[in-house]
Amino acid sequence: MMKRLIAACIALLPVISHAQRATLWLTKANQSVLFQKQTESLAFGPISGTASSIYVDETKRFQSMDGFGYTLTGGSATLINGLKPAEKAALLRELFAIDADNIGVSYLRISVGASDLSDHVFTYNDLPAGQTDPTLNRFSLVEEQKDLIPVLKQVLAINPQLKILASPWTPPSWMKTNHDSKGGNLKPEFYDAYARYLVKYIQEMKKQGIRIEALTVQNEPLHPGNNPSLFMPQDEQANFIKKSLGPAFKAAKLNTKIIIYDHNADRPDYPISILNDPEARKYIDGSAFHLYGGGIDALRDVHEAHPDKNLYFTEQWIGAPANFGGDLLWHVKNLVIGAPRNWSKTVLEWNLAADPKQNPHTDGGCTACLGALTIGESIIRNPAYYIIAHASKFVRPGSVRIVSNVTLSLPNVAFKTPDGKTVLIVLNESDKPTTFNIRTKSKQLTPTLSGKTVATFVW
């Protein structure tokens, strides 16, 4: 009996030891440390001392997380697909594999047809001037067969649970008031045809083994100056959803989520006004945001107006040439920390890859969008790579945001993962090292974090 009791106690020792220690990953703004696991294991001890504390309380829970990742633009897919097979396989494993050696990206955004970071403008139903095809007999994914679909298939073989969000930049030009890829409005007489177009896209991608988790109705609907683009004010988006897109999804029995807005945080009135429409809101899962205008706390306004609807952060660029330290600190504070603290279920950076001259892009597309990767003679990892890695590797889909308070110059966010681990991401914005406590339950960790450093603690 005594031997069995001793054996049982010994068996519990690794569990107790693991629960009382944390691992730490760091990235420093001066690039002296780039997403490196620290060799020392940090031990929790009893509550003591007077240093400022971050209190982590796993009993108070908020939204579940769908994931962290990037936009796999058409140009990104072209660059990745052009790598040598072994190099491409190694890179995709580094990005998407869920293991100790890789960063485990769990969410991707793609464009429906071309985005402005494709090498040319196209949709899946381009016709000669003056022609229309409301029955979509000439619909084709042939352009995506070149690069995007092969890359996605390889990614999904690595991580079958990866979630994919699709966003259109423009409908086919024959559906638009100006008959052009840039700007214009969707003609009301083609609402039903465009809804069928989006349904057909989801169905055809499914035939390729690619499930579209969610669809935003329109990328940046208030920015018709991009190429491609579409102007879609909130009343038009509401009408399109309730009259055409929602019923078309229902008739096709699609479970793909419909997400509205997909534009800057300075206009929370846009998604709120659509969600105030009972005929539109019944088809809508939530709202998506970028942060080229407004503050990240505007997402909370939308949550408070409609707490039953989800929030997503879907795009933020880094301009070339990068200011590594400034970009790292701003994006971690506002996106990786700020977006989840304001109820977002995703954090996605724009864009995954570009070449050394920030190509490819369309005529009129973004000429200075720095990829998370620069793919040329070698592969360079840029700020967005490290920004996302600090969360994607540890905060797996299904993780839940939990309570943590902000103290001193230490913005932070905490999560409980599906396998029971706690993840705390902390940013020291100041120039000086800061010593602080991490307190959870009846134990405490007291690290010192150097100035202008991002830290991920896991225990």
Automatic annotation (TrEMBL):
GO terms for biological process: glucosylceramide catabolic process. Keywords: Glycosidase, Hydrolase, Signal. InterPro entries: GH (IPR017853), GH30_C (IPR033452), Glyco_hydro_30 (IPR001139), Glyco_hydro_30_TIM-barrel (IPR033453), Glyco_hydro_b (IPR013780). Residues 398-457 form the Glycosyl hydrolase family 30 beta sandwich domain. Residues 1-19 form the signal peptide. Its EC number is 3.2.1.75. Residues 66-395 form the Glycosyl hydrolase family 30 TIM-barrel domain. It is an enzyme of class 3 (hydrolase). Pfam families: Glyco_hydro_30 (PF02055), Glyco_hydro_30C (PF17189). One of its GO terms (molecular function) is glucosylceramidase activity. GO terms for cellular component: membrane. Belongs to the glycosyl hydrolase 30 family. This is Glucan endo-1,6-beta-glucosidase. It comes from Runella slithyformis (strain ATCC 29530 / DSM 19594 / LMG 11500 / NCIMB 11436 / LSU 4).
